[in-house]
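Aim 2 progress update. The chain analyzed this quarter is reproduced below.
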Amino acid sequence: MTTKTIVSSAVPTHVQTGLRARVAMIVARLGRFPLAVHQLLFRLAIAGVFLKAGLLKVASWESTVALFRDEYRVPVFPPEVAAVLASSVELGCSALLVLGLASRLATLPLLGMIVTIQLFVYPEAWSEHLVWGSILIFLLTRGPGFISIDRLIGLERGDDPSAASTSRSRS
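Predicted structure tokens:
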């Protein structure tokens, strides 16, 4: 028994094919956008968030300690210690990310802060924390990119995974 499929479309087939080819061409061009630019922008964006928070804490230290004591109430550490730790991590890790120095390592304390903030301080801010965490996980797993001190001093390898797989297959 033979079944015929009837395709009904208001757009002629040659136009659909032309549209698909154009879309494919645009997608291919977008795919060639340098990953290193994304990595740089991600580093600057997430560093901006934490740098601003760290600078605000340092600018008004008495208010910061009071905030940690009265609102944040982070477990384990006294408010003074938690404020120093948070400020140090925010400022230090942000600086490292801007420079692209020890970038993967710098993401870890920031991820820890996000988890702590999510669990103990502002659980309703999960959507913001999800964005920050996603950016940090991307940087942790993919690295800081070609535009970084890590790459310049040899802590990171080249950005082209296809080159690595090609060289491995030749060996």
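The chain has one domain: 36-156. The first helix runs from residue 13 to 31. These observations will guide the mutagenesis experiments scheduled for the next reporting period.
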